[in-house]
Amino acid sequence: MNKKLLNYQKLHTFASPKKKTKLTRSISNIATIKSGVYAKTATEGDCLYLQGKDFSESGELDTSLAPSVRVADANPKHFLNHNDILLLARGDNNAAFLFTNTEYPALASPTFLVLTVNEFDIQPEFLLWYLNSYLGQKRLKRESKGSSIQSITIKTLANIEIDIPPMNIQDQIVAIANLSTRRTKLSTELNHLKRKEVELLLFETAKKQ
Length: 209
Prior knowledge:
Helix content is 36%, strand content 15%. With 209 residues, the protein is α+β, with helices and mostly antiparallel strands. It has a domain of 142 residues: Adenine-n6-DNA-methyltransferase TaqI, Chain A, domain 2, CATH 3.90.220.20. Helix 1 crosses helix 5. The longest helix is centred in the C-terminal third of the chain and has 42 residues. It starts with 7 loop residues before the first helix and ends with a helix.
């Protein structure tokens, strides 16, 4: 997430009516949290088994990912729901991703903590934005435990408190965050194309010598 993104406290200051005040809640009060599960892989599966490497830096799931677990071997209660949030809970990278419905059922591997928002006045995308924000990541790093491999426990995540603005402010925050992510992605793609163009030009120059 772009560190220059307006934090929602500033956005709330100029965009929200004074009568509407933000609420502070712990994550356990707005979402259920569970760990990802170990699953036996199969050569011919009909269920996706998601790992951190399956998501891009911009949070997009690899569309070429093939199912590697059989539904018959999985407990249905572990299947992911639309708009579940997957948080990388081990290691230095604690990025969060939004899961949206796919062609196949999906399971999250143990590298993730899975958050299911259960409050009607909170957008999953808003919680996702907070977890990926500079302040959210700083908090997660501070709360990580472990001597060699840092990890975030369900209890630690559940106790983190965040300010929840009114829904209309959440909408604005999510829209700005999505635009920022899109801009970063396009900028990266443009830089890649420019670098490729320069390399081709240099190769053509070398051939002429």
